[in-house]
Design brief:
With 448 residues, this protein is α/β, with parallel strands linked by helices. It has 2 domains: 3-64 and 346-447, Aspartate Aminotransferase, domain 1; 68-343, 3-Layer(aba) Sandwich (Aspartate Aminotransferase, domain 2). It is built from 15 helices and 15 strands. The chain has helices spanning 23-28, 54-57, 66-78, 90-100, 116-133, 154-159, 163-166, 203-212, 238-249, 270-274, 301-309, 328-343, 346-362, 392-404, 425-447; strands at 33-37, 40-43, 48-51, 109-113, 141-145, 177-180, 217-222, 252-256, 280-283, 295-299, 370-376, 379-384, 406-407, 409-411, 414-417. The strands form 3 sheets. It has a 7-stranded mixed beta sheet with strand order 4-10-9-8-7-5-6, sandwiched between helices. A hairpin with a 2-residue loop joins strand 14 and strand 15 (414-417). The two termini are 38 Å apart. It binds pyridoxal-5'-phosphate. Pyridoxal-5'-phosphate binds at residues 115-117, 120, 149-151, 223, 227-228, 256, 258-259, 284.
């Protein structure tokens, strides 16, 4: 197999330890993606699939965008890399200014990271650094939420709440983390949009604050819509209650918008969609349309100012950063993405397409193997009924859908659906039709 033509199964699959994958099963029956254009992918079997999850929520603008390729190529030709410590690169400042035009209220200061996990890890450290700068070093506890997903570094896993991600590593997690209950209530079955009930679950924050002393809590972190666990939409009033409790006790509110950021909910950020402003916000995924890894942490001016003011001129104010923080190639991709957002009025397009997608998604609720469906904007989750052990139904359905020509990610028994914003109604129809075929084939296979 030549490097230009990676279309067949490599000679050896043994050396690559694949992430979040059933390695043994995959290697016995590999699935390779060889090409991508627009809303379509090609497999090494030569079959075409429609991308129903924008990669991993990364490519809302579609695959193979020429504008991004050209911007990246030009950047690589001009300045391929500049180390980012104690010196800069103009593009990263330009990008921060452009992002700040979209972030809510005074979240105007951007710290660049490598991905979503490092954005969350950075947000945690900035929260601690802020409190310390204000003379409140005793604020070190964090509050996360069950079923939350915040990435894979130790801090992220500690505040996250998806049990399989935690189990093996429980002994090395960050101390002082408490979790609120999730909002996945039985009465929310097949509820589209925000559930009417469940806002009182936000009272868990007050309860934790009472138990541990609110003066010891640095921050509460949630995904405004929990994405990886299958689109858990916040009950009406829930996020505002968290905001109120944080304000009452001087706790920072962090919204992890790695998935919900950049138009997924219908507004640019979920914060604006739900009318609740956090103190710190993370983003990643769609920032570069998935072509180059990049994460960003947006902070309130006051947080930045407090950390700056705590150090004398000439010293490093925050001992944190990455070799790949805001590197030219990532910045070039992100700036090209910003141009496309504007030129194609992408957020408005996503907002307008969302009702059509939601209608299609919920049309699948008659399928026997489907246990529940949730959705908001351009994201949705389909829970499959349990099949002998957790995760089996999700994985088997994923494989049946892969065969049926629709590509997405399954987490446990939940199918994660998040179409690209450049989809037309006919593409949504194709996604829903192929999901129906794949799920139906899975049902049949179970009966045989
Ligand atoms: C809400 C959220 N936070 C953080 C992450 C981690 O991002 P990454 O995989 O880029 O490290 C993810 C990834 O899915 C996510 O959904």
């Amino acid at each position: 197999m030549s490097s230009e033509n990676r279309t067949s199964v490599p000679n050896s699959l043994n050396e690559h330890w694949m992430p979040f994958t059933s390695n043994k099963d995959f290697k016995a029956n590999p699935r390779l993606i060889t090409e991508a254009k627009g809303v379509y992918l090609k497999t090494h079997h030569g079959k075409t699939q429609i991308d129903a999850s924008s990669g991993l929520f990364c490519n809302p603008l579609g695959h193979g965008r020429k504008e991004i390729t050209e911007a990246v190529t030009k950047q690589l030709d001009t300045l391929d890399y500049a180390q980012p410590f104690q010196q800069g690169f103009g593009g990263s400042f330009e990008l921060a200014t452009r992002i700040s035009k979209h972030t809510p209220a005074d979240l105007n200061k951007m710290f660049y990271t490598i991905c979503g996990s490092t954005a969350v890890e950075t947000a945690i450290k900035i929260a601690v650094a802020y409190h310390r700068a204000k003379g409140n070093a005793h604020r070190f506890r964090f509050v996360g939420r069950e079923r939350g997903y915040h990435g894979m570094n130790i801090g992220c896993v500690s505040v996250g709440g998806m049990i399989n991600n935690v189990k093996t590593f429980a002994s090395i997690l960050m101390p002082g983390v408490q979790h609120m209950r999730h909002t996945h209530l039985p009465e929310h079955k097949f509820v589209s949009g925000q559930p009417e009930t469940g806002a009182d679950l936000a009272d868990d924050l007050e309860r934790i604050a009472t138990n541990f002393g609110p003066e010891n809590i640095a921050a509460c972190i949630v995904e405004p819509i929990a994405g990886s666990t299958g689109t858990l939409v916040p009950p009406k009033g829930y996020l505002q209650k968290l905001r109120d409790t944080c304000d009452k006790h001087g706790i920072l509110l962090i919204f992890d918008e790695v998935i919900t950021g950049w138009g997924r909910t219908g507004s640019v950020f979920a914060s604006q969609e739900f009318g609740v402003t956090p103190d710190i916000m993370t983003m990643a995924k769609a920032t570069t349309n998935g072509v180059v890894p990049m994460g960003v942490v947006a902070c309130k001016d006051e947080i930045y100012d407090a950390v700056m003011d705590a150090s004398p001129m000439g010293s490093v104010e925050l001992f944190h950063g990455y070799t790949y923080s805001g590197i030219p190639v990532a910045v070039a991709a992100a700036l090209a993405v910003q141009d496309i957002f504007e030129k194609e009025d992408i957020f408005e397009r996503a907002k307008n397409l969302a009702p059509y997608f939601q209608k299609g998604l919920f049309s699948l609720q008659d399928l026997e193997a489907v246990d529940n469906i949730r959705g908001y904007g351009m994201m949705g989750g389909i829970d499959m009924k349990l099949n002998t052990k957790p995760g089996k139904a999700g994985y088997e359905t994923f494989k049946a859908c892969y065969e049926a020509g629709v590509n997405f990610k399954a987490t446990g028994d939940c199918l994660i659906i998040a179409p690209q914003f450049i989809c037309e109604e006919k593409h949504i129809d194709e996604i829903i039709d192929k999901l129906r075929t794949g799920i139906t084939n899975y049902q049949k296979n179970q009966k045989n």
